[in-house]
Write a structure and sequence with these properties.
By secondary structure, this protein is mainly alpha-helical. It is built from nine helices and no strands. Keywords: Membrane, Transmembrane, Transmembrane helix.
């Protein structure tokens, strides 16, 4: 029994992991407060969680700040593009819904573009955190991923969207989700998605030879 509470015991390791995720959650929230920096905060969050998984990272604050500074420009620019693209898509979908303009080709085209943008959202900041690439190469590779791996991309999107899906089940789960996001929810989702994306990108790297950080 006392082995459980030793420094290398199960309880200590679990509590340490919870503390790390609590700290990371706080850092992501604080770094996201000026909304323009959300992209850089997401990239830094993925840097920390991937290092936690692959390297047993314990220097959460130092790793987060280093990644935030290093990837700020590229992450912020990509975040701005994604935000603008999403705004345009929302306007177009609202137009179709309100005026019942459900022309087949228009709807199909808009649906395809929406899926591409959603895939950019799910890959973008993890990709920047994980790979050394120019901005142009990053965009090109991100656009290729859902085309080359449509089934895996869709499964990853569904798995990554599960927490949001659960939040929409009822007002109670929505409030609980918001409450959890203030303490542990965001970093926990990052940690979960990092496991999935690491497994996915291992296969991509084997085929494409991207340069890992």
């Amino acid at each position: 029994m006392e082995n459980l509470f030793r420094i290398d015991g199960l309880v200590y390791r679990v509590m340490l992991k919870i503390w790390q995720l609590l700290l990371l959650n706080f850092l992501i929230l604080m770094a996201s407060l000026p909304l323009i920096t959300i992209g850089a905060a997401q990239t830094a969050g993925f840097t920390v969680t991937t290092h936690m998984i692959t390297k047993g990272e314990t220097q959460i604050l130092a790793t987060f700040v280093t990644s935030f500074k290093k990837n700020f420009k590229q992450s912020t620019l990509l975040w701005g593009i994604l935000l603008l693209s999403s705004s345009i898509l929302i306007i177009n979908w609202n137009y179709l819904i309100q005026f019942q303009q459900w022309g087949s080709w228009v709807t199909i085209g808009l649906g395809i573009v929406t899926l591409l943008v959603l895939n950019l959202f799910q890959y973008a900041f993890f990709y920047i955190a994980r790979f050394d690439d120019s901005f142009k190469s990053t965009i090109r590779n991100l656009l290729k991923l859902p085309i080359r791996y449509p089934v895996r991309s869709m499964l990853l999107m569904i798995a990554g969207g599960l927490p949001l899906g659960v939040m929409t089940l009822s007002p109670y789960t929505f409030v609980f989700g918001l409450y959890m996001s203030c303490f542990l929810g965001i970093s926990l989702v990052h940690f979960f998605r990092s496991y999935l994306l690491l497994s996915f990108f291992e296969k991509v790297v084997e085929r494409g030879g991207e340069k890992d950080k």
